[in-house]
Design a protein that fits this description.
The complex is a heterodimer. Chain A is mainly α. Chain A has helices at residues 2-29, 34-39, 45-55, 61-73, 87-121, 127-139, 142-156, 179-185, 189-225, 229-236, 241-279, 284-291, 297-325, 328-331. The two termini of chain A are 13 Å apart. In chain A, 45% of the residues are buried. Chain B is an all-alpha fold. Chain B is 72% helix and 0% strand. Chain B contains eleven helices and no strands. Chain B has helices spanning 10-23, 31-48, 50-53, 85-121, 123-138, 141-152, 156-183, 186-193, 198-234, 246-253, 262-288. The two termini of chain B are 38 Å apart. Classes of the chains: A mainly alpha, B mainly alpha. Chains A and B meet through α1, α6, α7, α9 and α11 of A and α1, α6, α9, α10 and α11 of B.
Amino acid sequence: MIGLVLKRLVSMVVILLVLSAAVFLLQKLSHVDPVHAYLGANASKAAIARESRILGYNRPVLDQYLHYVAGLFHGNLQTSLRTRRPVATDIAAYLPATVELTVFGLGLAVVLGALLGLASAGQWRGAGLFRAVMLSGASAPAFLLALLGILWFSGSLHWLPATGDTGVVNAPSGPTGIIVVDALVHGQLSTAWDGVVHLILPGICIALGPAVSIGRVLRGSLVSAMRSDFVRTARSKGLSERVVLLRHALRNSLTAALAMTGLQAGLMFAGVVVIETVFAWPGIGLYTSQSIPAADFPAIGGVTLVLGVGYVVINTIVDILQVLADPRIALA
Amino acid sequence: MAVAEPYTPSVVVRGLARARQARVGTRRSPLSNRIGLVAFGVLVLVAVLAPVIAPHGPIIPSGLPFTPPFHAGALLGTDEVGLDIFSRVLYGLRASLLAAGAVIASGVVVGGLIGLVAGVLGGWVDDVLMRFTDLFLALPGPVLAIAIVAALGPSFFHTLLGVAIVWWPFYARIVRGEVRALASRPHVESARLAGAGVVRRALKHLLPGAVPAVVVTASLDVGNLVVTLASLSFLGLGAPAPAPELGAMAARGLQYLLQEWWVPVMPALAVFLLALVSNLAGDGFRDLLGDR
């Protein structure tokens, strides 16, 4: 077990190094010269050459990469070409809102996915309806859900807000930066509730796609588990169908759904960029989409690194959880 | 130092395989899947014939701005400059299908080649190629695609390139798996004993065996790709402004959502329709080819 964890951690480090190399390479391939963009269109050749020397752009590429990685270890993600602030500072300001949204979304996806999987795997009449819902959910782009959600629940019914993470003007901004948590820390219940209400629409939009994928995989393994010998034994013991499904079949179907949850986190991170843009959610997704038209690659690369680290860490945890859920995997 | 251990999503693959087995075999292809196949055929035809069917050009204003759907001859209404949304959606479908097809084709060729070489040669070549493949699978593909397109500069071609770069590993894994499974079968063994060279065995005896699995995977992939590509386009990573791309149309129409809802919603619905039909057709296609 400990050996396995160590192995996973080593592979995580290798993957992160590759990720940093990929982002560095993309920056080199970028169609925008960062020095020129930073100094402005009218910068003189001499000024560009001087700034290049200061920033180290005239050194060999490998040298630059090592310098870049060393910078990463010190939390240096270079300077944004658009906001003129260090990218790390920008991301630190935008990240809490994204953490809030993705944690909520991922939790919602797991719960919804489990419900969809269980409901559609059963032999009851409504199962077909759930399968139809899952098929539609798998085909709907997140931005369509967002558009329809805003149109109906915000525009026509005025039930839910559709922009930002809070409507309270002087909401507390410390210590975590996550509105709901901060409001609770400061004892402002109404502000916390306001934050929760703001989470609902974007949270559902971001969770539905992953929920459907998780549900499909769970349904697949549940259906086959329900046909296996140990379920026949459990049934013949006279256990109720519910106990057989929840106690016997579900436990043996968890690993696949767990792995899918980890993979879906990657999709969700891309979805975050779209959804934060539509809902003006002040997170790193919105930061990314604002950086795209400005061709601000240091910012986009920084976000890619942060999301990549998140993804790799989540999947490492999932890998380890899988072994806990099904010890047979460690032997394989 | 140890080489990177991959996050092999084999558990997921097995789960999906079980899902497929569970559905097929007990009964024939459900009606919805067969309808999906027909509908997909119709959509492809519509996409190919878009210039003939579309009542207006995609970038030439055809009427007053913000005509609601079913008014003044505009089936899906007009947008903020009076472009006919129905015509633009038709051209957008064409671009979406073309893009999905191009990414799948490149994924099949690049991934297939890598998987074939790895599976046929085995040994250290297999190790190196599959570690490389797994590294790609361990990174968040869609996020990387955004970064790639943003670095190269937004354009239709760069979007294809960006998504293709993160898409091929799946095909490499599938082809390699099929080839490895086939390599030990008697007909390949006898071909080897009969003196058939590596290339001949790979192309004549192993590659054909991997085709059905690849075709099924590719047909199930279209829906995913349509949505992924539309999302990139939505973020402004596709072709520049007047080009009829569904994602970009929805994004630009966002500001009119609460008053002129059809401007952003119609193109987004078109993406949904195309993805839904593709998914149904993919299931139907898999049923046609028999359980894989």
